[in-house]
Amino acid sequence: MSEHDSEFDGCGCSFEKKEECGLFGIFGDPDAVQKTYFGLHSLQHRGQEAAGIASSDGQFIQCYKNMGTVARVFRSGSDVLEKLANPIAIGHVRYSTTGSSKAVNSQPLLAEYCRGQVAVAHNGNLINAGLLRDEYEAYGSIFKSTSDTEIIVHLLAKPTHQNKPDPLGHVLNHLQGAYSLIFLFADHIEAARDPYGIRPLCIGRTDAGAYIVASETCALDTIGAKFVREVEPGEIVRLDKKGLSSRFFVRKGDITPAHCIFEHVYFAKQNSRIFGENVHELRKKLGRQLAKEHPVKADVVIPVPDSGTSAAIGYANESGIPFDMGMVRSHYIGRTFISPEQELRELAVKLKLAIVNEVVAGKRIVVVDDSIVRGTTTRGKIRNLRAAGAKEIHMRVSCPPIRFPCYYGVDFPTKEELLANGRSLDQIREFLEVDSVGYLSLEGMLAAAALPADYYCTACWSGKYRIPIDVALNKFAMERYQMYMFEDFTAAYE
Questions:
Q1: CB atoms within 10 A of CB 202
Q2: What is the pLDDT of residue 9?
Q3: For residues 464 and 458, is the Cβ–Cβ distance under 8 A?
Q4: Would you put residue 386 in left (φ > 0), alpha (ψ -120 to 50) or beta?
């Protein structure tokens, strides 16, 4: 499935996989806010629901955030960035995995507690957030959002946690699940990664000596910074006037990493380096392995752009079948294109991916995609290829069949809505209306990656969750009926 494509039901609700969140932070640069803005632009593929920047002059934190893309929130002609201008800044782009798509859940989350102000930006999903919220509400804590990130602020403010030698490290040990975090305090930044290293987080440095933390190295490239290293699982890095320092809140080496390899398959940008290797190069290796496992006689290999392109190049190189662009994706049709009528929704899909008739007409084609989730969008693309005159269509997918939901920061549908759940390959082929279908094996995918196989999380394919999960967990686990009533009433009144 392409990076910005999605499938909508009659209410306009998306059922396909969605991006997560993107983080960026920089300390000690006079243009910190501007560079955060450009860094967030490069991370826009990780979330398009909301964007925000918090900055500090060393004493006071200010924050601006809103719903929409980076360009929309900080739209040209406004003076928001000028008002935020400070030498310390963090930023966030969001796609919701816990909590509704509402302005109150946008980040960075700014709060004030006994030690002053703090702004928090989070990528991931806390699987014990509901339990922690229930506990803190029972003791009188009042929550303003339905995001799991707010839990972290309440933990940080608890008086007994403040008495610990390392309050932040103590707080992080209470969290379960996936989290890459950036904290902006008045005079410094702290960034942390969960003990399994599920979500990526890296460190960079500018030529002038300012340190940066970001979800992906593509953000470093955008502002001309050099990659230093990744934040290690279980590590807290501190950026302040002294430079970069580090400590661990778990004993280093005690936990085997569980990096989300779906970051390589789909989420991360092609020019990023995560988990020790370049995304584009690994995707090409996945495509080559896919060609070995599922060869077919065909005239042309075409990708589902954009995230299927690298794997399609690998498939073409290995198979010897020519590569071409049989589909062209529009960058101007966003995932928020919602229509109540089926006919108009189908037109939206055609707008997002236009078929190059001359490439596919009368040809036996191999269509390479990074993954298939629910399958209805993919079937729509196949029908468009048939209508354009494709003689044969062979679907090839550069990851295994997705049969289980993710609870670590990817907003997949429920298990029952997943195409591969309970279906044989032949039944999947019939549903997609293709001549053949082939998925990359789990073993083949892991063998293509640079790290040992047990260093990756494969839960969405294997059902083996490294961190135990509550089967009742879902995106709206912390929603409150009263909050909905209040917000709906307010909106109606205005």
A1: 24
A2: 32
A3: yes
A4: alpha
Q: For tokens 């280093």, name the residue.
A: 252
Let me know whether 40 and 80 are in one domain: yes
Nearest C-alpha neighbor of 295 from the set 211, 416, 394, 157:
394
Residue 269 lies in a domain: no
What letters, b where the CB count within 10 A reaches 16 and e where it falls short, cover 406-430? Answer: bbbbbbbbeeeebbbeebeeeebbe
C-beta neighbour count of 176 within 10 angstroms:
18
Identity at 404, one-letter amino acid code: F
Whether 216 and 182 map to the same domain: the answer is: yes
Asked if 362 and 407 sit in the same domain, the reply is: yes
Whether the per-residue pLDDT at 379 is higher than 80: the answer is yes
265 has a pLDDT exceeding 70 = yes
Domain-embedded: residue 397: yes
Q: In the block, which residue shows the tokens 């020790």?
A: 276
- Structure tokens belonging to residue 25: 């932070």
The Cα–Cα gap between 412 and 410 comes to: 6
Q: What is the chain's length?
A: 494
Residues with Cβ within 8 Å of residue 482, at least 6 apart in sequence: none
pLDDT tens digits, 5-59: 433 333 333 334 444 799 999 999 999 999 999 999 999 999 989 999 999 999 9
CA-to-CA distance for 266 and 286, rounded, in angstroms? 12
CATH of the domain at 212: 3.60.20.10
Return the half-sphere exposure (C-beta side, CA atoms, 13 A cut-off) of residue 355: 21
11, 13, 21, 460: the catalytic one is 21
- For this structure, is 218 an active site residue? no
Tokens of 492: 């109606």
Half-sphere exposure of 99 (CA within 13 A, CB side): 29
